[in-house]
Design brief:
70% helix; two-stranded antiparallel sheet; mainly alpha; 11 helices
């Protein structure tokens, strides 16, 4: 049986690739949405911190014997701590200024981080093996499912949904949203708003570190992996709606699948289809699919 001139097995394989790419889009755009929604900062350093997460996992394994599972917990923590330092030292001075200043500062940080890793590690890339428990795959009849790729999709969905639940359905999330809209009132209630903002930025970039560890066994770990992805992720955030948690998750996964289907039907357009969709969405609904109209 063929669909669009491609066998069912080939189509399923392409959709799996799209779902994996969509999982990375969702986790990374979620971190961007959390940071923009709560801090009003366009964090262009997100791709560099994602790359740093992959490199820290590789360095931990090759030089210190830290296995994948430990890296999956430790690396996001380290990236989150770095984010806290960045927010306290640099970003907190920009909250009352135009978005452009935050974008330029984080863009400069991204160039510095990427430049340092290119200087020390080159651009050839390093390989990172998947954990032994997730090697191999399962024959589903219509396709062969690699275990690690299935794990990436499941882990990404769990993290995305847990983040959405915390921000949208818990008291902590209510404080975060209120702190964004009326920080003076929230601070008058005894809540440390500056600390809450700092931890929010740390959590947002920790998601980038988490995505980097997930990506390490699939992609070559190299200093350019973040810059190659961040423009697409920004497009995902714009389509979903700047600051929209649910929009980032749904749009990230959906656009990964759309990109995969385009690769089957019209491969030449697969590299630009997301940006074409972004232009159409901005023309029809400038706030994004899930964003709030002013």
């Amino acid at each position: 049986m063929e669909i669009f001139g491609v066998s069912l097995q080939g189509l399923a394989g392409q959709l799996l690739i799209g779902l994996i790419n969509g999982s990375f889009y969702a986790v990374l755009s979620l971190g961007l949405a959390v940071i923009f929604g709560q801090l009003n900062i366009i964090n262009f350093a997100h791709g560099a911190l994602y790359m740093m997460g992959a490199f820290l996992a590789w360095i931990g394994l090759t030089h210190f014997g830290i296995n994948y599972w430990a890296a999956l917990l430790l690396v996001p923590l380290l990236i989150g701590l770095l984010g806290i330092v960045i927010e306290r030292a640099l970003l907190r001075w920009l909250y009352q200024l135009d978005h452009l200043y935050g974008l330029l500062l984080t863009f400069g940080l991204a160039l510095i981080i990427e430049g340092l890793f290119r200087y020390y590690f080159g651009i050839s890339g390093e390989s990172y093996e998947a954990p032994e428990a997730l090697r191999g795959g399962v024959d589903l009849g219509f396709m062969f499912l690699p275990l690690y790729r299935g794990w990436v999709v499941v882990a990404s969905l769990v993290v995305c949904l847990a983040t959405w639940f915390i921000i949208e359905r818990t008291k902590l999330g209510a404080y975060l949203r209120a702190g964004t809209e009326n920080p003076k009132l929230v601070q008058a209630l005894g809540i440390n708003v500056p600390l809450m903002i700092t931890l929010t930025y740390g959590f947002g970039v920790a998601l980038a570190g988490f995505a980097g560890v997930l990506a390490a066994p699939i992609l070559q770990v190299n200093p350019l992996m973040g810059s190659n992805l961040i423009i697409v992720v920004f497009a995902v955030v714009v389509i979903g709606g700047m600051g929209s948690i649910l929009g980032s998750i749904v749009t990230g996964l959906g656009l990964g699948l759309v990109e995969a289907l385009t690769r089957v039907v019209y491969p030449e357009a697969s590299a630009v289809v997301i940006f074409v969709i972004m232009v159409i969405v901005l023309l029809v609904r400038p706030a994004g699919l899930f964003g709030r109209e002013n």
